[in-house]
Amino acid sequence: MKETLKSEKEFLKANYPEIHKKHGNQMLANTLQNILLMHIKETYPVLRKELYDTKDRLENQLKTLKTPDQKVSFVLGLLNDVCKSYCDTVAGNRKDLSESALVGGAKISQIIHNEYVEKLDKIDPLLDLTDEKIGNILLNSAGNQ
Question: 114 vs 2, 62, 111, 124, CA distance in Å?
């Protein structure tokens, strides 16, 4: 690896003497590192604030769970949230739905219209049924009428 970096430096110095100091593997690594550090400096405060806000919100929710009545209402609220999220997913009303794959109601519809119908069409409903068996079934279902 050291030899490769050395030969890269020599190549750049020989062929591009005016700009060789600003190019090459080491400069690329330094530039990428600086970009990453700038990105971290920009996003870290926002992420930290969101994390602390979430922590505070969850701690406040935990404080409300002091009595059994509050625990029941909290769990009921969670179940309602899950139920609403499920219904929204099936109905296609979620804002965070995947753009790369079918989910929820769209996936269910695809399965019913493509896979289920295709498999249903392959079933022979009269397989192993003779006219005599069909006649017996009809007579048996009619009872004594």
Answer: 58, 46, 5, 18
Prediction pTM value: 0.38
Distance CA 44, CA 13 (A): 39
Please say whether the dihedral angle defined by the alpha carbons of residues 30, 32, 38 and 40, taken in this order, is positive or negative.
Answer: negative
Cα–Cα dist 89/106, whole Å:
9
Alpha-carbon distance of 33 to 28, in angstroms, equals 8
Q: Name the amino acid, one letter, at 132.
A: E
Contact 88, 94 (CB under 8 A): yes
Mean pLDDT per block of 10 residues along the chain (145 residues) reads 82 79 82 92 89 90 73 84 84 75 80 83 83 89 77
∠ CA 12-15-19 to the nearest 5 degrees?
60
